[in-house]
Amino acid sequence: MRKQVVAGNWKMNTDLESATALVKDVVDKLGRVKCEVIFGVPYVYLQAVSKLIKSKKNVFLAAQNMHHEESGAFTGEISAKMLRSLDVSHVIIGHSERREYNQEGNDLIAKKVNKALEHNLVPIFCCGEPLKIREANRHVGYVNKQIKQGLFHLPSDKLSKVIIAYEPVWAIGTGKTASSQQAQEMHEAIRKLISRSYGPSIADEVSILYGGSCNPGNAAELFGKADVDGGLIGGASLKANDFLSIIDQLG
Ligand code: PGA
What DSSP state is assigned to residue 177? Predict the structure, then answer.
């Protein structure tokens, strides 16, 4: 059975004081949740946030990136092993901002996925098409290729652990959300793609999140779709009440 997940992606925002205040605010007001709640925070706050969420059931910690090698001469980089030593359980891999600004391609992303899984970190694998691909009506093929090249080398017992986040690039940080029909169309296509290669029971174990200007006003509609298992939330995860409202709408 696939999990229901709301994951925040803070990106390069907050400072130590506002980061801890934000987590405290969310955790204090958060009742008992059935879904998984994940804080995707900058590396430098992982340790502080880890302490704040320790006693909370179903609340987890994610890094926003990691290096694909085990260790070594990679100045400024962070390894999977380092993340594990800070009680990090998830890691966002292949976010479109890293694909664009750090030239991360599917081959590199596949290596990061492998390294994360080797260390028992759950990859939150991001995919999604830019606007001109959507306008040319080539979005399904484009996203399928990202998924095949980034994930389909995995055996089924590993693939079933991955969380996929579909984030159309044109919807990220723009206030322009995909309609719930557009989200469902892509999520269904992704699940069918997994089903064709791995079978329906594995396809039903993979959680597929929607990301891109998800907010308290549109979350219920998006989460109501059959193949949308939650959200990866950027801007709205920086406001405690908005993030809580989105969590509430997933249940
Ligand atoms: P957004 O970002 O919610 O601010 O659009 C989502 C993401 O990039 O993960």
Answer: P
